Amino acid sequence: MGFIRSSSVDSSIPPSTSRTTCASCCGARRWYRSPAGCHRRNEKHASNRWSRREGGSCWSAPDCLSEGINLQEHFDAVLHYDLAWNPTRHEQREGRVDRFGQRAAEVRVITYFGTDNAIDGVILEILIRKHKSIKSDLGVTVAVPGSSEQIAEALFEGALFRDREGAGQLTLDFIDEIGSQRRELHAEWDNARDREQATRSRFAHHTVKPEEVAAELASVRAAIGGSADVARFFGDVLRAANVPLQLNGTVEVAISNETSRALRQAIGRDEPFAGRFELPLQEGEIYLGRTSPVVEGLASWALDQALDPESSDSRLVAARCGAIRTSAVSVRTTLLVIRFRYHLSAGRAGGETILCEEIVPLGCTGPAAVPDWLPSEESEPLMAARPERNLLPTAIDQQLSVLLPSLSTFRMSLGSVAVERAEAQFEAHQRVRAATRARGRVAVAPVLPVDILAAYVLLPRLD
User: What is the DSSP secondary-structure string of 29-77?
Assistant: First the structure.
């Protein structure tokens, strides 16, 4: 017998320390490797203990495990102990382990085959090696020509049903008979590779400049936020709700019966849990990304409190209006949370119109009729301003009595800002369309008046 190691193999990894996944067409079994050897365990106990055994572990499974299962957290090697007719199956098996979230620098891939088995040799040469060679050249997978299935069937039938002459070893001389078929298959596959290469060259975006793409990507990331923004929001809201939590790479949230019932229902958790804001995850952790159900539920709960404080069953954690004293400003500053909406029209006049929107914080000084708007890079940090001095209730009422009547004036003043932001959106669309050589007319028009979602007064700290 023999082994074929893929190009990604790290030969310095001793097999005894690898956590291996075996894939074949046999029944599913779980095995454990220990200094004393391999021992078969009860299936129920195995599912709970295999990843914590010392000395590594081995999981044997059929091809049903090659799709829809994530094994990168528990394994760093794959052993193929059969040769599939379709090379894509090998890629699917390897993809269970060699995927996003794998902590090992390299994934060990071994293919088990018979050096004295003519069928294995033909399959390796015609299918698997050719497949890997084309993928290595182009960087993408090219589908196996349909005639390869016919050759696989011929090999299978010949191995099982060809008569044996005499009592000696079975000879597979029929392999020589398909030499022409093999050459035809290689020719078809080479043609498929050339067509794929021509297609990739034809549609390659040679005019796209990486620095332009990076600038647009940074703009999108700034708009939707990243893991650091999620972590800050998550911690601030739960602390304000008096929910105990620890942040040390992993966030541990101590949900209990004392936690607001509405909050528990919103995040779908009644018991303590642990999670991370970035991948990969450890066993028992949940992913707390921007679109995680827990994070979305927490945001909805905070928003409900701001919109309807009277219905809250716990301490309020958010408000749409307020006043604080902080060292983040040196003069009285009004901070507004604005929703700008635009009509995006593409194509001819009367064509489809798309409603787009963005929500941004915008600060200003001076009166509402002639405000001095702060640039975005100065307004954004004001959202993180912290109160540093107590304000008397009468002082808060005084500030809000001035702020609230002026909101309608602010909305009128924001009309010119909406026009400027619409022009910026138009220019961004034009840049992307020019880079991708898209044709057609595009128009972006602001929808007025704008919506003021929240308003705050920031007063300078008095020492």
Answer: EEEEEETTEEEE--HHHHHHHGGG-TT-EEEEE-GGGGSS---TTT-SE
